[in-house]
Amino acid sequence: MAQPVSDAHWGAVGRGRRQATERAAGWVLLAFSAVSILTTVGIVVVLVSEAFGFFLEVSPWEFLTGTRWAPMIQPQSFGILPLLAGSVLVAVGAAVVALPMGTLIAIFLSEYAPERLRKIVKPALEILAGIPTVVYGYFALTFVTPLIREVVPGTDIFNAASASIVVGIMIIPLVSSLSEDAMSAVPDSLRQGAYALGATKYEVATRTVFPAALSGVVASFILALSRAIGETMAVTIAAGMTPKLTLNPFTSIETMTAYIVQVSMGETPYGTIEYKTIFAVGLVLFLITLVLNIASLAILKRFRDVYE
């Protein structure tokens, strides 16, 4: 006569299945995490190895301090300063547009806007981040540049000012969304305490909430700058492809990303010094964005306020 299977047996079987499922889930999650890590490592290895080949032929000192960038014409010159200056010029111009507007929008959404209005305005702003960058580029070329040329008649058709404006518009959602999240995370007890001391709504927003959320706001600024420096198509279309060491925003320039697009069109033979410049410029761009991201994390860690 068969012995009945006890409840303890079925309980042990169930626990074994759950443990096996947990282990399998852990391995799957580890595999996905490893993909992102290995991808990053692969990118770094490719950049460094290809850039190393470039620096075997070109002096790093010449590359970092040269004021003329002309790898495609004779006599060749490999000074990256014109490309670096163009990228910084566009990023600074974009910051002038985006940081004040994004911060003011964040203060409005966090402290002034009713909940119903906030639910409409915030997603509407984030739509700007979903518009293809090519569209921004042609918007700059066909709409923004003609307006600038009416105000400053000598402005080039391709110019840094137009690129800065559209890139600034692009990164406004990044600044406003992250800053608003930081301000909304400030405990309401701080607001109520300020109101109890007789502060107005404006004073609470600017002297209590904003300073308390400063770490998150500054981190959003740095991340937005990183995004602006790495922007490609909008800058390529709007700013042109003229590597020039200048601080004049109304003239044509070339950024590091625009140069990478130019050389990547397929006309440069593989393995040549001109081809290797892609990776040398890409390595500089990677290091700049890496430093900016590390700085944003350091600021968050240094200035984060912990509220009980």
Summarize the structure.
The chain has 308 residues and is an all-alpha fold. It has helices spanning 7-57, 60-65, 81-112, 115-127, 133-151, 160-184, 188-196, 201-212, 214-229, 233-239, 256-263, 273-303, and strands at 69-70, 77-78. It has 2 domains: 7-57; 69-303, MetI-like fold (Orthogonal Bundle).
Structure in words:
With 308 residues, the chain is an all-alpha fold. Helices cover 74% and strands 1% of the residues. The chain contains 12 helices and 2 strands; from the N terminus they run ααββαααααααααα.
Key terms:
2 domains; MetI-like fold; 308 residues; mainly alpha; globular; two-stranded antiparallel ribbon
Instruction: Give the tally of structural domains.
Output: 2
User: Termini separation (Å)?
Assistant: 66 Å
Average pLDDT level: 83
CATH class of the largest domain: Mainly Alpha
Q: Please estimate the helix content.
A: over 70%
Biggest pleated sheet: 2 strands, antiparallel
| Widest β-sheet, arrangement of strands | 1-2
- The CATH superfamily of the largest domain appears as MetI-like
* Assigned CATH architecture of the largest domain: Orthogonal Bundle
Shape: globular
Topology:
Layout: H1 7-57, H2 60-65, E1 69-70, E2 77-78, H3 81-112, H4 115-127, H5 133-151, H6 160-184, H7 188-196, H8 201-212, H9 214-229, H10 233-239, H11 256-263, H12 273-303
Antiparallel strand pairs: 1-2
Helix pairs in contact: 1-12, 3-6, 3-9, 4-6, 5-6, 5-10, 6-9, 6-10, 7-8, 9-12, 11-12
